Structures are given as structure tokens and as C-alpha cells.
């Protein structure tokens, strides 16, 4: 009798949906963040700066948000190492100016750059869908998609895109997810290929309620920290399911990376006084070149495919996560929550206007239309 009531009690308990991180997970998350901030330089002391890259002349790489910070460094170094780089940016003029500058720098070294610019605004899912359509129309292979662009509107009130989604969620998760799915035909053409998501150690303090990804239910009070960390956790969860659902034969691997704590324009919304303090601690904080190393490693290291395939064969619940010191790391405990990850997957497809069988159709070579991308510019 006692056993029956306790097991039914357990069932009841398992039915109660987790509403937030447990305090141990929350404490562990903040510990990881502070530890990374204090010791990242020591942990990454074995890495060269800039990071030497293997031969990549045959690679075509799309880098989002490559006009500033980490993305700028990623695009510059890939281009100077010989890759064909597509700068997917919202400020196309700034990107053209950067190419001119890099070309002058490289001409002295006898290197001809192969870089081009394509416009995309991640705050508009129409723009994302149009970008993917334009790229796929070339019928060219894509070897590496680097979802780097991101925002952290520190201290700002909750804002929504014209698509109706909370801005951190849209720029850091929904738009890169849509781009990744829509570009699959080109990634299949470029196979073996990779999707590298520039994530963050801050996903450790994130919590995603798939029923309330937009944080509008009123159950939780929005803060920019919550918006940012939740969007990064949603990205790890979506990437894990995408990676799992892509069969090994597709040759496409999906990874997330942590760039470390990096001095970039990401803190542009901080009060000036805090920004000055932030610049006063260069010993602890990476510069953009140092912050680009884990992504460059994930995008180009030949052993990455083998590692990802091993995780896939082991049915590991999460995708590969590369730390700021270019080593395999474990994402947060919450990222291993398979049930939520599948809910995030389904909800993301719904929010981005993709059919629930989009992946299967694309893998079979069929055309997939999403709800976005038909509006005229
Ligand atoms: N810095 C850090 O400590 C840190 C730590 C962990 C993770 N990260 C991640 O690293 C990535 C790069 O950030 P960062 O530090 O290099 O910041 P950043 O200097 O602010 O660069 C962000 C880039 O994203 C672009 N972007 C922002 N909103 C966009 C939109 N709606 N459409 C298209 N592009 C957009 C920006 O374009 P504009 O120049 O036009 O604004 C910029 O090129 C982000 O995903 C961030 O979350 C950074």
C-alpha cells in the first residue's frame, strides 16, 4: 500500500513541470561563469594567438555578424587563410569597408582575398529566409555556417521584433535556427560540413520554458540577463536535436562554442562607467582575436568531425560544445533535459514558420517553404 502511494506520488511529482533552475544548478551556473572570467586566460595559455589554421582554401564559410567583435576576427582570419568568406551582415557598407582594409593589409603579404558581402537582418525572419533563398539559388556548396551574430541588450526593457518575438530570442536563437535549417541543401552539397553556433557560458544560468519562450506569460519577470541566457540555452537545445536528427551519412555536424569573456561591442548598452571598468580589466578579458579561437577551431579542426560522429554514435544527449580553451566541454545540466530540448525544437520550427517535417523533407531533397521570405523588400 505504502509503495503504491509513494510511486503515485512520484508520478505526480514528475508531472509537475519544472518552473526554473534548481538553486544548486543556478549556483553552479554562476560559479562556471565567474570561474571562466577569472581563469580563462590561464586555461587557454596553451593556445597561440592568432590561432594557426589548417589549409582551408577549398572552404566556403558564411559568418553572420562579421562587422564587429568576434565575428569580424573570425571572418578576417578565415579570409586571410584562403577561405571563401561570405560576410552575412546588416551593415553592408561597414563590411565593404572592412574588405577594402583587409585587402590592403593582405596585398603586402601577396594574398588575394575571396570575400563577399550579403545583407541579412536577424531581427527580420523575412530577411533571413530571403538570404537563405538567395544563397541556395547559387547551387553552390557551403562548408561552414558560423552563426555568430548576437545581442545582449544589458539593462534594456523587453523589446520585440516586428515578427513578434523577444529580441534576444530572435537574434540569438530563432534567426540562426531558421538560417541553419534553410541552408541545409547547401550544407549537404558541401558535406562534410559544419554549423558552428557562437554560444556562451551564460547558457548555464538560462532556463527555457518551451510554452513561454517569448517570456510574455507573466509567470517570470523579464530581465535582459534572462533573455540572453535563455536564448543561448535554447540554441544549445535546438542544436542538440538538429545534430541528432541529421543522419551520419549527411556529413553535417552541429556544434556550439563558448568564446570566453571577450571585450567587444556586445557591452555597448552598459552604462559608460561600467564600460570603462570593463576596459580596465584586460588581464581577465580576452580581446576579439583571442575570443575568435574556439570558433575557428570548431570550424576548421580536422578532428572535430570524428568527435561529433563519436557523440552521435553514442547517442549523447547534447551536441558538441567547445570551450574557450578549444577543448570539448559539457554544456549545462539543463541542456541535457531531452524532453525540453524536443519541445524547444518543435516550438522553434513553429515560431520560424517551418513545417514540422522540414528536416526530413530537406534531407530527401524536397523543397521546403517557410512562412517568411515572401514579403517584398
Ligand atoms: N563578448 C563576449 O564576452 C561574449 C561572450 C559569450 C558569447 N558571445 C557571443 O559572441 C557573439 C558575437 O558577439 P560579440 O561579442 O562579438 O559582439 P558585437 O561586437 O556586438 O558583435 C555582434 C555582431 O552581431 C551583429 N548583429 C547584431 N544584431 C544583428 C541583427 N539583427 N542582424 C544581423 N547582425 C546583427 C552586429 O552587427 P552590427 O555591427 O551591425 O551591430 C555585430 O556584427 C554573440 O553571439 C555573443 O552572444 C560574446
TrEMBL record:
Keyword list, A-Z: Oxidoreductase
One of the Pfam families matching this protein, by short name: adh_short
A single GO molecular function term of this UniProt record: oxidoreductase activity
Highest rank taxon of the organism: Eukaryota
Record carries keyword Oxidoreductase: yes
Leader sequence residues: none
Assigned protein family: Belongs to the short-chain dehydrogenases/reductases (SDR) family.
PANTHER family: DEHYDROGENASE_REDUCTASE SDR FAMILY MEMBER FEY, RETINOL DEHYDROGENASE
Protein name: Retinol dehydrogenase 11
Gene source species: Lupinus luteus (European yellow lupine)
